[in-house]
Amino acid sequence: MNWFNYKDGTLYAEDIRLADLAEQYGTPLFVYSKATLTRHIHTIDGAFDGIDHLTCYSVKVNANGAILRIIAEHGLGADIVSGGELFRALRAGIPASRIVYSGVGKTEDEIRYALKTGILMFNVESEAELYTINRIAGEMKTVAPVAFRINPDVDPKTHPYIATGLKTNKFGIPHHEALRIYRDAARMPNINVIGIDAHIGSQLIDMTPYRETAELLSGLIEEVRDAGIDVRMVDIGGGLGIQYHDENPPEPADWAQMVGPIIKKTGCTLIIEPGRSMVGNACVLVTKVLYTKKNEDKTFIIVDAGMNDIIRPSLYGSYHRVVPLTEKKTERRVVDVVGPICESGDFIARGREMYMPAEGDYLAVLSAGAYVMSMASNYNSRLRAPEVLVDRDMATLVTRRETLEDLVAREIR
To answer: Cys-Cys with 348: which of 245, 246, 278, 337 at CB 3.0–4.6 Å?
Structure first.
């Protein structure tokens, strides 16, 4: 459910016309709905009521400070994958004690930073990382709280680029090696083993992989405890899918009913790491039609948002709905909606049937909150877009548009 709706043929964000925001701030422009984000926070976190749990928002999905502050205000934690994300989460007011640190390539500086701040735990992804954390914690005369990310070899049935739980993926420790590594870690003087973790992928629609993973982790907990190691936390990851096109994603309550009882039997605190399901449909990208162009076999709608603003269609072949800000009953054609980037792969939609817009019209790219602005770039020396947060009838600029001087600000001349 979201608060982007047509009223009298005009698309609104809550109580504000998107066309008015486009005129005020220019395009491309990201517009967030606070009501949508807040509802998703309550729906997801609330689905696990009755289960001892901690909801850690996945910062990589969208690291905007305004979003993170809303996350902090609701008492949630954060799942991070870099020192930069740790800095952002702390700056937004998320306590270090509610932050888990994932990722296969933590640097020594990042590990020191996380230990200094006192994070809840590291999700350790390899033996080599474990030895490095133990050494650095010893140098700092402290003890590092860790969980081990297990690779369960479970097929999440999603796009191969965002599947993370197969044995062919770079993530996690093979589940058949887990017990040995837990025993090794328990003997290390600067390691405190407190948990177990798995994250199998993103944009999951089928619930079966969640159950398989929860059952595998539950079995491993028994083995680890039989070895005398007290595991108190189970991080099941995130990845719950959303609707971009015609998907029928499960509700958060379905997710909770699937994994909750399995984890509850272990007596552990459950950690979940939602991201896309919280913010994905809480944002649209507004773009302006620059030109229409017809070749022999193609009609192109050329807009001012490019793959530097939204790379998901080019990278994953992802589908995003593209709708007009003002509904018109013009001629319907099959078109490609493309951007200004000097790449043939720069497109937002291909082979899409839609009412033909005119030059100067505004379009909205829906479901633009997840993995969009967080992966934006300056390719072709383009300026990254501003971000606006709408709260009922109030719009607040939360990230300004970059300037030409910003493009060269880090260069030493």
So the answer is: 337
Active site residue 342: yes
294, β-bridge pairs: 299
3-state secondary structure of 230: coil
Active-site annotation holder among 56, 268, 283, 342: 342
pTM: 0.94
CA distances in angstroms from 217 to 184, 222, 254, listed in the order given? 19, 9, 19
Instruction: Read off the pLDDT of residues 73-121 as tens digits, 9 standing for 90 and up.
Output: 999 999 999 999 999 999 999 999 999 999 999 999 999 999 999 999 9
DSSP symbols for 27-94: SSEEEEEHHHHHHHHHHHHHHTTTS-EEEEEEGGG---HHHHHHHHHTT-EEEESSHHHHHHHHHTT-
User: Cis (ω within 30 of 0) for the bond into 28?
Assistant: yes
Whether 261 and 187 have beta carbons less than 8 Å apart is answered as: no
Residues 359-369 pLDDT 10s:
999 999 999 99
Spatial separation of the C-alpha atoms in residues 216 and 211, rounded to whole Å = 9
Q: What pLDDT, in 10s, does the model give residues 8-31?
A: 999 999 999 999 999 999 999 999
Number of H helices and number of E strands within the chain? 12, 21
Max Cα-Cα span within the chain = 71
Q: Kindly report the CATH class assigned to 4-32+280-408.
A: mainly beta
Interior/surface letters 67-96, b for 16+ CB within 10 angstroms, e for the rest: bbbbbbeeebbbbbbbbebbebbbebebbb
| β partners of residue 324 | 363
87 CB contacts (<8 Å, ≥6 apart)? none
Distance CA 11, CA 17 (A): 6
Give the strand pairing for 299-303 and 121-124. unpaired
Distance CA 113, CA 188 (A): 21
* Bond from prior residue into 252 cis (ω within 30 degrees of 0): no
- Enumerate the domain spans of the chain: 4-32+280-408, 34-276
Total residues found in the chain within this entry: 413
CATH 3.20.20.10 fits 34-276, yes or no: yes
- 336 in the Ramachandran plot: left (φ > 0), alpha (ψ -120 to 50) or beta? beta
Q: How many Cα atoms occupy the beta-carbon half-sphere of 188 within 13 Å?
A: 24
**Least confident residue range of 168-177, 273-282, 326-335, 374-383:** 168-177
Three-class SS state of 122? strand
57 phi/psi in degrees, rounded to 5? -60, 135
Whether 390 contacts 371, CB under 8 Å: no
Query: Measuring CA to CA, which residue among 85, 34, 76 is closest to residue 274?
Result: 76
